[in-house]
Amino acid sequence: MALEITEVCVGCYACEPLCPNEAISAGNPVFTIDPNKCTECLGDYDKPQCAEICPIEAAIVDEIGDPLNPLGSLTGIPLHLIEEYNTTGTVVRS
Amino acid sequence: MELPVISNSAPEASGGGCSSSGCGTAPDALGHLPDHIRSKVQDHPCYSEEAHHYFARMHVAVAPACNIQCNYCNRKYDCSNESRPGVVSEVMSPEQAVKKTLAVAAAIPQMTVLGIAGPGDPLANPERTFETFRRLSEEAPDIKLCVSTNGLSLPQSVDELAKHNIDHVTITINTVDPEIGAKIYPWIFWENKRIFGVEGAKILIEQQQKGLEMLTSRGILVKVNSVMIPGVNDEHLKEVSKIVKAKGAFLHNVMPLIAEAEHGTYYGIMGQREPTPLELEALQDSCSGDMSMMRHCRQCRADAVGLLGEDRGEEFTLDKIDEMEVDYATAMVERAKVHQAITSELEMKRALKAAPKFEAEAADKPATRPIRIAIASKGGGVINEHFGHAHEFLVYEVDSAGHRFLGHRKCTAYCMGDESCGDGETVLGQIIKSLEGVEVLLASKIGFEPWADLEKAGIQPNGEHAMEPIEEAIRAVYDELAAAGKLDQPAAAKAAA
After folding, report:
1. What is the chain B residue with the closest CA to A72?
2. What superfamily does domain B28-322 belong to in CATH?
3. Where would I find the Radical SAM core domain in this sequence (chain B) (predicted)?
């Protein structure tokens, strides 16, 4: 079992020093998790540290691809507005 | 001609008089400070209204990680077209940051201050931040070091900060009330957990206040930044101002919220409005009763380079500095000469200001009302910018007794290219809107079309004072209007912009 970083990662370095297994490496454009080292923090912390600090929704996913921080869970922005922003680059308010 | 200056704060017995500059800016933000603090900050471009015309600063973006989320921030920071805090084009390693700093310091000898302000939180990246500070204090001892933080990790960083001889720290404190905090900070990362809502905000506030007390008790100067968010913390910031002053902060900088849907921030997308310039000025005025306010902040990017209000970052991108050879020992000699020349000039100006003045013979004059005058200036304290090229206007309040600097009104320049002046009435409309409350506008030149529209909006354009010092020009304009009896009554109702 291991977590994975997706292409929405902004490379902010927040996760890297927190990993108890030193499984995360900086990369361009996105950071990566070494699946052989990642333990999802079992035995070290209650929750995976990379996902606890990551500011980007859906940047860290589990083995079946489910995000640990789903869209809207960190910012509180309603899903339909996130969708509108992601497709048009803005949100038009009436 | 010397003018008394209207003070922002209650007059106090302060030694040394004022520190106004050729730009005619009010010295009140620093004027009341004790001598030992003023001498530390009067040459700092981010603290001294006067110094920012002469000394430059730069930020290095070595600190990308953050330990909190703010509703006015979007952690995607890859846009070179946006000019706001938390946005940078490239994140650097400490090594690259040191190289860039030395290259800029050699090329721009006026650069005296290196700050680390993000794009995340410097103290959430302690290794990268302190490695940069450690190397710079060794290799470039003539550069002052500054850091700006959200305060969450501040208490555990105070020892390390003191070690690096950093004598100024900025803390962003938007609230002292966890309920309000929960509307600004959705979560924090604390002791290996993400903590949401009121609980998280409460911890953040406690750490900020503790850090503030620890710094001031060690004699490290603290400036407090607050973002004014209408309907969320605007009224509350008056209380914040009192509390942080009581705990020893020397300067409070109330800045307007920047929130546009394009930025993808929570506030931007949810339609939280920004304060109007007049609302910001009114809040700054109410807070100033309790402490010195900063009026010239430009809300710089975390990788800005140059004088406040300008950004020369493009000249120092990573590939360009890779090719630069810097002999810093030689550069330091040149830098010392330039600093000496600027300091002498500033001292001369301060001495002139401190000289005894004749009392204004205002007693028998009829009372006239204060007005706001906007100035188009490229810097240097003179009216030297065309209306159409201005990216910002300096706004002063002038009355029969003196004047004071109120702040900048940012705008999109009316003329975008060489020949495309007046590209769309919307730009002019926005400029006029940004000049709310202003009755006279002085520029080195103003075109025919904007002239008419400004007049229609109740703003009198005036190009007669081109290249004159701002202080003298605003006095002359005010006195002329007063003599013509135009300032006896309240401001006439203006046509809608």
Report:
1. B266
2. Aldolase class I (3.20.20.70)
3. 52-303
